[in-house]
Design goal:
The complex is a heterodimer of chains A (263) and B (213).
Chain A: H1 3-8, H2 10-14, H3 20-32, H4 34-51, H5 62-71, H6 79-90, H7 95-114, H8 159-170, H9 188-194, E1 202-206, H10 212-229, E2 232-235, H11 236-241, H12 246-249, E3 252-253
Parallel strand pairs in A: 1-2, 1-3
Helix pairs in contact in A: 3-4
Chain B: H1 3-9, H2 28-35, H3 39-61, H4 64-81, H5 91-112, H6 114-125, H7 144-156, H8 159-170, H9 175-182, H10 186-208
Helix pairs in contact in B: 2-3, 3-4, 3-5, 4-5, 5-9, 7-10, 8-10, 9-10
Classes of the chains: A mainly alpha (263), B mainly alpha (213).
């Protein structure tokens, strides 16, 4: 075992996470190598520091303030979330009820999913699988929950959805830096929430093709939306660097600007 | 440390993976009551988990103010999205997941406001904004200078390394739970924690040689 191999195993050694034979090899190396012993000692000291660090006390009124906001109506689930909760409850129903409701649920699902929409903004183009990556789930489970949201014609959507979105589109799209009250795009995020984005714990976005001047703005809008919706944007480039296959399997590719995709 | 001492002391840090995954969820009853319409049950969950949420946010953000904002948002999000929670994981795992996502979102937002972040760092350096001033006998094993340095170095780590490090070495979560929270393989969790420790060891080298009060 050379020095680097030894150092790669020091955390596992500290955690007693090595087989007996490998642990013996580590100890044999340590007993004859002052430099690696020093690294081991410092690493262990670092871990001791971290583990000896008491948790900071939250503000004494933190819970009270949260509860006050909840009682004031903040944190209410959206309509789609409530529908999903109902459907989750139905899944635990007895067989005949389950069979009877599955058909209804599928019908509802088709309608809800049919609302998945990518707003086509003039001069901007979009492509990709349109799937939301769900961080806590295995990728193999995702295709059953994700469908393409790209290439859906706005004309095929219900009028109450299309109208405001087209108004926003005519006004130049939602990527302008300031969208204020009375602006056609004021409710852009609300539409996205209504389309299901809020319920995704995470989603993957690919922004490599966005020209540098626009990329920061795009990332800003993605970040702002994610902060409000409680979901986490994962950058495909970062996943790719880490060798994570979700980078290509679930990326919502943005070629210029203006992301919208739904499960 | 003498070679003999190492062989005698050995790997004294016990694995924290002993927490049984799949054991009865201590929050299960409250969750059932909440789902049945009892909002007081959710308020009890808020009080039960506020320290956990605030602690992770404070350590990953290095700011009381930001941690408090994030903690409030986390509980509103939990209330909003609690229906998504599945019984195969513990509710506390779900809480951690929502918290980590909220923290990462906040950090990205802060990253875009670099000047503000630099201001935070300066306040931390002067000790004004650190949630790590000594608070009791347990905490006093670390000197304030070393603690402040540790906080700064943790903030310097990238998100990919800092998050599993905080969850494992500070919060004490087992690898399997971190794997579930972050949606990455357990081996990747271990590897990132090791890289984070080595990076910290390197940066803290001089300080960690000192005796702390």
């Amino acid at each position: 075992m050379n020095h680097e191999e030894l150092r790669d195993r020091l955390s596992a050694y500290l955690e007693a996470d090595l087989e007996a034979s490998e642990r013996a090899r580590v100890e044999e190396h340590l007993s004859g190598c002052p430099d690696c012993r020093r690294e081991y000692r410092e690493l262990r000291h670092t871990v001791d520091l971290l583990r000896g660090w008491a948790a900071p006390d939250p503000p004494p009124d933190l819970a009270d303030r949260v509860i006050a906001r909840l009682r004031a109506g903040e944190g209410r689930p959206g309509l789609l979330a409530r529908c999903q909760a109902r459907m989750a409850g139905i899944a635990e129903a007895p067989g005949p009820i389950l069979l009877a409701t599955v058909g209804v649920a599928l019908g509802v699902l088709v309608i809800v999913r049919g609302m998945d929409l990518l707003l086509e903004v003039p001069g901007w183009s979009h492509s990709g699988a349109g799937r939301i990556e769900t961080a806590a789930e295995r990728p193999a489970e995702l295709p059953a929950r994700g469908i393409s949201a790209f290439g859906v014609s706005p004309e095929s959507q219900p009028a109450e959805v299309v109208g405001p979105l087209l108004a926003c589109q005519r006004a130049g799209g939602p990527a302008r830096p300031e969208v204020g009250r009375g602006d056609p795009c004021e409710h852009w995020d609300s539409w996205m929430v209504g389309l299901g984005m809020r319920d995704a714990p995470a989603f993957v976005v690919e922004v490599e093709a966005v020209p540098a001047p626009a990329r920061e703005r795009v990332l800003g809008r993605i970040g702002d939306f994610a902060a409000r919706s409680g979901s986490a944007p994962l950058l495909a480039g970062e996943l790719r660097s880490a060798g994570d296959p979700r980078a290509t399997r679930f990326a919502n590719r943005i070629e210029r600007t203006g992301i919208v995709s739904t499960r | 440390m003498a070679a003999q001492e190492i062989l005698e002391r050995g790997p004294v840090l016990r694995s924290r993976d002993e927490a049984a995954v799949g054991e009865v969820d201590p929050d299960g009853e409250l969750l059932e009551r909440w789902r049945a319409g009892d909002e007081v049950a959710f308020e009890t969950l808020v009080r039960r988990h506020e320290r956990r949420v605030y602690g992770v946010a404070a350590r990953m953000l290095g700011s009381r103010e930001e941690a408090e904002d994030v903690a409030q948002e986390v509980f509103l999000n939990l209330h909003r999205s609690g229906h998504r929670f599945r019984k195969e994981a513990r509710f506390s795992t779900f809480v951690y997941r929502v918290t980590v996502n909220a923290v990462l979102n906040r950090r990205r937002s802060l990253g875009r406001r670099r000047a503000r972040l630099e201001g935070l760092m300066q306040r931390q350096a002067s000790g004004d904004d650190l949630p790590y001033t000594p608070r009791g006998p347990e905490d006093s094993i670390l000197g304030s200078e070393l603690r402040a340095q540790l906080q700064r170095e943790i903030l310097e780590l990238g998100d990919a390394l800092r998050t599993p490090l905080v969850l494992h070495d500070i919060e004490g979560l087992p690898y399997a739970e971190i794997s579930s929270i972050l949606g990455i393989a357990e081996g990747t969790v271990k590897s990132r924690i090791h890289r984070a420790r080595r990076a910290l060891r390197h940066r803290l080298g001089n300080l960690s040689d000192r005796e702390v009060p």
